[in-house]
Write a structure and sequence with these properties.
The protein is an alpha/beta fold and 326 residues long. Helices cover 46% and strands 10% of the residues. It has helices spanning 3-8, 10-19, 47-57, 80-88, 100-108, 135-150, 163-180, 185-209, 226-231, 250-263, 277-286, 308-323; strands at residues 40-44, 61-65, 91-94, 113-116, 217-220, 235-238, 267-270, 289-292. β5, α9 and β6 form a beta-alpha-beta unit. α2 crosses α3, α2 (10-19) crosses α7 and α8 runs parallel beside α12 (308-323). It is globular. The protein starts with a helix and ends with a helix.
């Protein structure tokens, strides 16, 4: 399995492991990613699930992913080939509500083991959490705006950006692996413990790094960081809602400009997989800096880290700088 394929296919591994039914070559587009019948074949929906599968499954799993590096996962449309491959997999690992096309395909699939990461932790509604500075009137106004931009209010799916919640999901995935493939249960348990230690270290670094800052408010391109903000006592103000492609209203832009002055905001964060045009325009008009805060929906050559932990560490440094950490 080459590096690029392995990076793409981690999520699939997780699902396959959970199923414990053996590897099917149809799940992969090349023979190096599948074909070893002594391994689990898992289809993963996007990078954060892939990472869990690879970390926990180790050498016992083969993974393919539905979302290619550099592809924005929210907008994913599945090909007929991908849908067929999913049906022949041993397991599927996904996060319900993030990718509607994936949810639909999985619901119609005959895959015996379907692992929904959203069921392994508690999702929350961050629709108005990050917009509480204007009282009830503003909250209601913004809620209407989000309804018109992105349809009905949904629970925030971006749980992987909170290391604590991500660890909860990892624990559930590991338990699925152990149950489905008891012959390798000890290895899955050990791998899961090692991953839990990494995530605990990340949590500690965030707590210590963001404990004392000049400001607690940060601006982002879309509302991906609600869980992270809540975990570490910060306030996320998103230009767009949960949909990264939605367009903010002129009133929202004006409001953010005023808030930047009131809360000492220095930086507007954008991300690598969607357009940075609105973020840079806001920054220019308000006299703010720009930087990348990566929602980790995929790893590319532009990512400031080779994997989940590396990018999360880069995100912490960016936040420390923007917020004036002591």
């Amino acid at each position: 399995m080459n590096v690029r394929r392995r990076r793409i296919s981690g999520i699939a591994v997780t699902a396959a492991t959970a199923l414990g039914l053996g590897t099917l070559s149809a799940c992969s587009s090349d023979s190096s990613a599948a074909g070893n019948t002594d391994k689990f074949d898992v289809v993963a929906s996007f990078y954060p699930m892939e990472y869990l599968a690879e970390q926990i499954g180790g050498d016992h799993v083969n993974v393919t992913t539905l979302t290619e590096p550099g592809q924005e996962p929210h907008d994913l449309e599945l090909s007929a080939k991908q849908t067929a491959q999913m049906g022949e997999a041993d397991a599927v690992l996904y996060l319900k509500s993030l990718q509607p096309a994936v949810d639909e395909a999985i619901a119609q699939s005959d895959v015996k083991t379907k692992i929904d990461a959203a069921s392994l932790t508690k999702l929350e509604d961050h629709g108005n959490v990050e917009h509480d500075h204007g009282g009830e009137e503003h909250a209601d106004e913004h809620a209407e705006e989000e309804h018109s931009e992105g349809g009905e209010h949904a629970l925030d799916p971006h749980v992987w950006l909170d290391p604590v919640k991500y660890a909860e999901i990892a624990k559930g995935v590991a338990e699925s692996f152990e149950k489905a493939d008891p012959d390798h249960a000890d290895d899955y348990r050990k791998n899961a413990e090692a991953l839990a230690e990494k995530l605990s270290g990340l949590d500690t670094a965030y707590k210590e790094g963001l404990a004392k800052t000049d400001s607690k408010v940060f601006f982002t391109n879309h509302a991906a960081f609600g869980y992270l903000a809540e975990r570490y006592g910060l306030t996320q103000e998103a230009i767009n809602g949960l949909d990264p492609e939605s367009e903010p209203s002129p009133a929202r832009i004006k409001e953010l400009q005023e808030e930047a002055k009131a809360d000492g905001v220095t930086t507007v964060f954008y991300e690598t997989l969607v357009s940075d045009k609105t973020a840079k325009t806001l920054a220019k008009d308000a006299g703010l800096k720009t930087d990348v805060l990566d929602p980790l929906e995929g790893i590319t050559d532009k990512s400031k880290g080779e994997d989940y932990v590396g990018v999360m560490e880069a995100n912490l440094k960016a936040l420390e700088t923007a917020l004036g950490a002591k």
